[in-house]
Write a structure and sequence with these properties.
13% strand, 51% helix, Nucleotidyltransferase, domain 5, 5-stranded mixed β-sheet
Amino acid sequence: MQVHYERCCGIDVHKETVVACVIVPDAEGKPAKETRTFSTMTGDLTALAQWLKDKGCTHVAMESTGVYWKPVYNLLEGVFEILVVNPTAIKKLKGKTDVSDAEWIADLLRHGLLRGSFIPSAQQRVLRDLTRYRTTLIDDRTREVNRLQKVLEDANLKLASVATDLMGVSGRAILAQLIQGQTDPVTLAELAKGRLREKRELLEKALVGTLKPHHRFMLIQHLGHIDYLDETIAKVDAEVVEQIRPFQAAVDRWDQLPGINQRVPS
């Protein structure tokens, strides 16, 4: 079988340790294996990188195990050719040890039998982290709005049945007055803005309820959390804009194409 990589390394990745098996030619040119275990602390991973360099290693392969491969990849990126491989591609019989895992990966890599998964560039990974975090924040905000709506329902206030956006200008104004102790439905309905003013009669009926002190307390907490999430989302948005700035010209060109937008519609 043709040898593809004479100096390579297979790494078995875990949460607290990594086991690395290096295969390099010995004095007679025959493949020789050496295995070492490192902790996943940054200092030890840096020592791993130095050991691989000292061995003249050119290619490294590891399984895409949860998120544990990422710090290893980040420290080795740009120094070695790295293959992050789907675990199913290197599945072996049960009962193996960590050392045999690393040796197995190294053997497969040495003979060119592994195909690495696509790993985005460092800049793309930054943007992916930010946008995924933004999505999580938006999901958190949606859940918090739903919790606020449940408090209103518990108080028999049907504001959400009339106002399509509880967090809009009208909704926030009405909620603020409810928290302050205002219970007159006519006065509350007069706070409606825009097209919602056309539904003032229905709004008056919806705002007749049984809001109690603990409801007001909970509304304050929910609105405070929503405001915090809005502020955090805005900060993440600003950071995304900053990270995209070097590619803004390309983004603007893509944005002109029909069906392509900078954000997926929610």
